[in-house]
Amino acid sequence: MDPRLSPDPATLSPSSEMMDMTPDNHNGAGQHGNADSDMFNLVDQQTAADATVGTPSSLSNMTMAADGTTPGEQAVGNNTTPKRKRFVKVVEVDAPNNLDLDAYIATYKGHTKINRLEFIADRCPSLQIDALKLAITELKSTQTLNVTRLSSLVKKLNEAVKGGGSVGANVSNDLLSLDKVWVDSQLLLAKQQTETLEGELKNYKRNSIKESVRMGYIELGNHYYEVGDLSNAHRSYSRTRDFCTTPKHMMELSMNVIKVSIELGNFPHVLTYVVKAESTPEVSQDKELTKAKLKAASGLANLDLNKYNSAARDFLSIGEELVGHQYGEVMSANDIAVYGGLCALASFSRAELKRLVIDNVGFRQYLELEPHIRDLIQGFYNSNYSLCLDIMDKWRNDYLLDIHLHSHIEALYTNIRKKALVQFTSPFMTVDLNKMAKSFSTTVPALEQELKSLIISGQIEARIDSQQKILWAKQTNKRSAIFDRTAAMSQDYERDAKGLVLRMQMISHGLVVKVPSSDKGNPEHIT
């Protein structure tokens, strides 16, 4: 049997037809397309040191392995290649404040649905059993060929049930075990399909028919993707490049590679193929939908690369084509509202926030799906900072369970808070630090430290009176500044006028050296 398609032997018991997935001393294995691997997203070092919004009581334990993984992620499946690993804190969430798991996960489909459920299970103990049950049910209902991942999820569920007390007692035995006959049949079916598709591809290459070879690679890539072998799926899709003969073929290639690259976490590659797809002439009937998907993929890649301004502009430029969750294999319409809104608040100026977000009719449809994001943006623009901080703190735990957003919450919240502090102080000559601390739900000493960092970085031009607890804005003599600017402009005008008069006098007295026609264009000859 093909070793790539073999399940974890620790989860299968050959002595019985029905196998109980009992936990052992080893940690659960995950696919390289698992949501677990997204824990390797980078957290900006400066962000980790900055002040953050929200109360620390809303978070629970914080664990971190040497490679940035949780203890349950350190084993990798036989048929997988782990994603790029990056050092990041792993935060366990006690309980989200607003997450309805069934309604939330219903907006996704395909691999991302399983990835998000497994991610939530690994991060939130209170939702672990429910998330694993939904993931296992989804894989079994689709007759998945990715038996390795299914067995890993079943093993995790058994471990959770064993330590879950009364909560785990309600789990059906069908979810806690796998039928060995069914597992063997799925493994055999996956192996047979792989051999068949590879054999057909060899025949196509032998006949040298470009279209047949291209379709053969696509079918093989689809099969590898279904099995969970993302690296081979990416390789098969990429090899169709040499056999693409029309713009439609190039677009199909780009969309397939983008889909797999997102799941692999290779976001620079995503941006490369987004550019290629956008430069391809549109020939499909649903070209607007394709453009929207490309913008969504580009926004997600820029978010992962900490380019929040670019990410916000990508999400805000998505039309109404994705309102109905048409890109559910990657993200939902609700995600577009959340990602776009938070990135805009963290990176846009007040004028840009008004012009690109509040007055954006197309993006308004996405904000209707997430009213709290709409209220957050309006509150920030209207300088209602206490409302903004309450909303951000209330939804913090929910965002920490988002597979793409969790590692950026600290940076985004810190940037939003800094912009709020700057915006709060800008209209006043003096600010009472006691009243300001109350508005920002913090203490005066902590507020002084935040203001000090902003003053040092030049974002606020002011001084702190620590004795009277007052922030004094630096006073500038506007009359003197205008006079100095006027004097500088007059000097520039005088210099330009003298130069123009001198040139006119030189021309009138024949003091200009004419360049011969043969030497025109030679920079060594100056008139």
From TrEMBL:
Principal subcellular localization: cytoplasm
Record's compositionally biased regions (Polar residues): 50-63
Region (Disordered): 1-35, 50-80
Entry keyword annotation includes tRNA processing: no
Keyword Nucleus: yes
Cited Gene3D superfamilies: 1.25.40.570
InterPro entries found in the cross-reference section: PCI_dom, Rpn7/CSN1, Rpn7_N, WH_DNA-bd_sf
Localisation: Cytoplasm; Nucleus
UniProt domain PCI: residue ranges: 307-478
Alphabetized UniProt keyword annotations: Cytoplasm, Nucleus, Signalosome
One Gene Ontology term, aspect cellular component: cytoplasm
Pfam families noted in UniProt: PCI, RPN7
Entries under PANTHER family matching the protein: 26S PROTESOME SUBUNIT 6 (PTHR14145), COP9 SIGNALOSOME COMPLEX SUBUNIT 1 (PTHR14145:SF2)
Similarity comment: family membership: Belongs to the CSN1 family.
Name of this protein: COP9 signalosome complex subunit 1
